[in-house]
Amino acid sequence: MVTVQEAEAIIRAQTRDFGIEELPFEQALRRVLAEDLKTDRDLPPFNRVAMDGIAVKYEAIAQGTQRFKIVGTQAAGGAPLEVQQLQDCIEIMTGAALPPSVDTVIRYEDLEIQNGIATVLTENVHAGQNLHRQGQDKKQGEVVVAAAQVVTPAVVSMAAAVGETQLRVKKLPKVVVISTGDELVDVEQTPLPYQIRRSNSYMVKAALQQFQIKADMLHLPDDIAATREELRQCLQQYEVVILSGGISAGKFDFVPQVLEELVVQKRFHKVQQKPGKPFWFGTYGQQTVVFALPGNPVSTFLCLHRYCLPWLHASLGLPEKPKLFASLAQDISFKPQLCYFVQVQLHFNEQGQLLATPFEGNGSGDFANLIEADAFLELPPEQSEYNKGEVYRVWPMKSLL
Amino acid sequence: MVTVQEAEAIIRAQTRDFGIEELPFEQALRRVLAEDLKTDRDLPPFNRVAMDGIAVKYEAIAQGTQRFKIVGTQAAGGAPLEVQQLQDCIEIMTGAALPPSVDTVIRYEDLEIQNGIATVLTENVHAGQNLHRQGQDKKQGEVVVAAAQVVTPAVVSMAAAVGETQLRVKKLPKVVVISTGDELVDVEQTPLPYQIRRSNSYMVKAALQQFQIKADMLHLPDDIAATREELRQCLQQYEVVILSGGISAGKFDFVPQVLEELVVQKRFHKVQQKPGKPFWFGTYGQQTVVFALPGNPVSTFLCLHRYCLPWLHASLGLPEKPKLFASLAQDISFKPQLCYFVQVQLHFNEQGQLLATPFEGNGSGDFANLIEADAFLELPPEQSEYNKGEVYRVWPMKSLL
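Structure tokens for the assembled complex are given below, as produced in the milestone run.
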């Protein structure tokens, strides 16, 4: 039996690299960027007019000129016009490229315009005002989006701005999610009184979609020969095998035995934690990683969030997430010498502090709480009393922000 | 000009209901559930064995029996066996339905089994132990997932467990995202020196995907007749029209004028905020809501997160999100009598408190900061100095947890 920290380190040592593929930028949302995006031009690419108004030579202002003759109108996207005389100006719109012959923009609010003459109503004009200077945000060739981050809407839009219509992103692993056990029937079926419907594998599959992974699903009956044959094929076809159930002390829990027969190297079996103690983890050559999670729905879900998703996150090349802490909103007592993962609801108080309220309840078996749980708190095994106001590490299971 | 709070209230008064549709449960992930899900059976549906071991009549234990004859093995999913004699037991597995003739489970760790006889090694056996009782989590017909919440992986799995293969979810609105302005060229094109590529509408479209909305896109040139004709059609075809650009004081900013000609009722134009002051909002009959956002990318994105996405959230029937607050990590000064939306990076300290670090920078124009910004802080207009340690409302733009 390993500790939670040992299990984490063993798994972390087995990250994999699934390679890189190219996608149209619009399809890359939520994928992991595998290249730096650079600007093809300065950002902004020209001295960008930041207010609607007129563009003048500041020299004229410095000399006391207040009335300017409008010699033309330049829209955003229009080719730059030219000003010949000091007392001439261009009516110019936000987003336009400032023509080289002028240097200062005076906004409409500070002007009166009549019969093609703009009169400046303020004394307060600075050289070069109301401009967003070429290259002020980024210079041509500078990195605007660094590799190894998730493609967000802002990244999609930056890719559009710099003309990167194809993005190199991390390939996703081929994943199979396997349920086990003769007590499980199809979702469409009405179970016999002593059967239940399959549900864990749907949960795992849905959770993997946050990475855009579309996992296959498979069910194994309590039949050692069938289990052996199916797992043999899965180890060839998939890079990640996630099992739920079949790893405890029961007579039909032959998943560990079969995996070892198939030369999957056991990295650990059993973790000092509740729920999820029977968790088994192994690797098959350099190719396939096997997470065999306990079959209880809460155990499956917590192990998925505590171990599998962070492993995927790391394998896709994302930097480690900052550790998150929350303050316990009520006392908890937990005697066993195990790390206790307790389901909680999270909220922020008005001081911006994250509070975690645990569910009263039926322990690891209470599947119904998972609907309302936002996260689980990781309570270390050295203690048995955990007091209100103490701060512990928290693992979110849904987005709270 | 309205305040931020007035703008918010006016928009909130215009929520819409887009109806309900039915989807296979696996396709309902991230949609909004429009019905309560109830259990078709108790949860658990039977007295569920919680440990691998033997099942006995407690009466035998009470009478001092320590050795039990194993009369059969019952796997999870197996039909319940029967025990006739007090000193008989069933070898039984986690997940099995406890047969009516027994009432107590003793785990393998507390047994020695030899030649079909199980000897109990502990004095410490309680009546009814190691069982997860029928209906302990939920009774048949009880609500397990309430309507008006987002379908998470846990909800998908609960739907599977209770056999709800079709889910009634909120319909999504038909949305068009419209960019405006002759300075914008297609992403595939190389812009002329005074042009830029379209990017805002990709950002808006991508951000809407968090609701699973697939928006259409449209570009309008600086041509009043074309703008009128296209907008006329959009008002008929779409329930939500999101424009970016064309609403300021410029000569080609005729979006507000055209919308009013098309009998879109202006609800407000201009908000006391920076960036995003020119924001225009209106409604077309009961059918269509029009958000005309400023064209600057940062303004577009902030207005989207501050106004449009919360409106969608409410229109889809989701309860209001709890307000989120963060502590300012450094002093900021902002003089204008406007609400200041400042882009920040968020992190939690080890006390579980959310800290917001503002970007130094170029103000609303700095599109490049959007890549790294996690959120924006809403700084009220009554102040001009905002000090480190003070707590302000924060609007996340990406998931931090």
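The CA atoms of residues 276 and 299 of chain A lie 5 Å apart. The domain at 48-132 of chain A is CATH 2.170.190.11 (Molybdopterin biosynthesis moeA protein; domain 3). Further analysis is deferred to the final report.
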